[in-house]
Amino acid sequence: MTLIRHDWTREEIAALFELPFNTLLWQAQSVHRQHHDPNAVQLSTLLSIKTGGCAENCGYCSQSASHETGLKASKLMEVDEVLDAAREAKAKGSERFCMGAAWRSPKDRDMDSIVAMIEGVKELGLETCMTLGMLSDDQTGRLAAAGLDYYNHNLDSSPEYYGKVVTTRTYSDRLETLERVRQAGINVCCGGIVGMGEDRSDRVGFLHTLATLPEHPASVPINALVPIKGTPLGDMLAGLPEAQIDDIEFVRTVAVARITMPASVVRLSAGRESMGEATQALCFLAGANSIFTGDRLLTTGNQGSDADGKLFAKLGLRGSLNDTEGLRAIAAE
Ligand code: SAM
Ligand code: DTB
Ligand code: SF4
């Protein structure tokens, strides 16, 4: 087993990015095989349980009240509606149900419904994940007591680039919630977005932050920016197409995440719809072992199960019911 390190330097991570592509992929695949089944991919399904009208101003997001994206805001969904969607996700083979709310942080009055959603989804035999924004100690305790399996809270970029992405909160705010979640014993899901106009040194800084956390996140989503009209970053990309992440650079980012966080499950997340099959196949070779299934992410489209089924058949991949080895390795650190 490769050693799980938390003392990566930026120079070491930059040097990984600079390796010849074949060497990088070989290293990533070697690390991957020591910690994970190389042909199993964890399957998660997303649902937006509360859409739009968010007080934060994340430059990529369709759901911020600061951006004119034409998205209709809605209230928190009823528990029964959420459970219907979870049942459907399970019937389609998904293993984890990820519920996202467009909040800066939850209101205490919403917590009873949130707890009921977690308990109900767990009863269906699915793993649960929530992403609700910043949490207080009390709210984190309630999520843990309800048995929440994962909390998603992304760092999104390097600390230096963060001010270009969002100004209504700081990187330290994010780190604080992540620490609360970790201390409460909930698995951390934390990653970010590439293709926001950042350069490679920002991608190095982003992965460096993740790989030097006290514990590596159990799950690391790597999103490619989905450009949304009316958002600052979506509009930036429309006027500057060369800022779009290059496919090979995206695969490199996945490979470096795999090498620096060997036991984590790395998710090939938003942006798959505009990636060809060959790029996705390279991501799996580079160590990605999770995807979002279904034809919706939160507010935008996703590749959908027909295309996924075809791709998995071509590549001989299968859904993994629980990558327990990766999780055990993190727990044993
Ligand atoms: N409000 C919560 C929060 O910010 O933590 C949860 C929902 S938020 C939509 C979850 C994550 O989705 C963001 O941190 C970001 O990484 C990702 N995301 C949102 N919009 C995206 C886009 N247009 N392209 C790629 N990733 C996106
Ligand atoms: C993550 O890293 N990506 C997911 C999930 N965590 C919550 C969200 C992707 C959202 C893509 C844009 C949208 O559909 O609004
Ligand atoms: Fe709100 Fe989350 Fe969107 Fe930021 S990413 S605007 S916090 S929903």
Would you mind describing this structure in some detail?
With 333 residues, this protein is α/β, with parallel strands linked by helices. It has 13 helices and ten strands. It has helices spanning 10-18, 21-35, 79-91, 111-123, 137-145, 162-165, 171-183, 200-211, 232-239, 247-260, 277-285, 305-315, 324-331, and strands at 40-50, 96-101, 127-131, 150-152, 187-189, 192-194, 219-224, 265-268, 288-293, 318-319. Strands 1, 2, 3, 4, 5, 6, 7, 8, 9 and 10 form a ten-stranded parallel beta sheet that branches. Strand 6 (192-194), helix 8 and strand 7 form a beta-alpha-beta unit. Helix 2 crosses helix 10. The longest helix is centred in the N-terminal third of the chain and has 15 residues, at 21-35. The chain is globular, with a radius of gyration of 18 Å. The structure holds S-adenosylmethionine (SAM), 6-(5-methyl-2-OXO-imidazolidin-4-yl)-hexanoic acid and iron/sulfur cluster. 6-(5-methyl-2-OXO-imidazolidin-4-yl)-hexanoic acid (DTB) binds at residues 46, 62, 98, 100, 131, 152, 154, 191, 221, 223, 226, 269-270, 297-300.
Characterize the largest beta sheet: strand count, sense, and whether it forms a barrel: 10 strands, parallel
- What integer value in Å does the Rg equal? 18 Å
Rounded average pLDDT: 93
Q: What percent strand?
A: 5-15%
Q: How many helices does DSSP assign?
A: 13
Distance between the first and last residues' Cα: 12 Å
Categorize the overall geometry.
globular
Could you name the ranges where pLDDT drops below 50 across 5 or more consecutive residues?
323-333
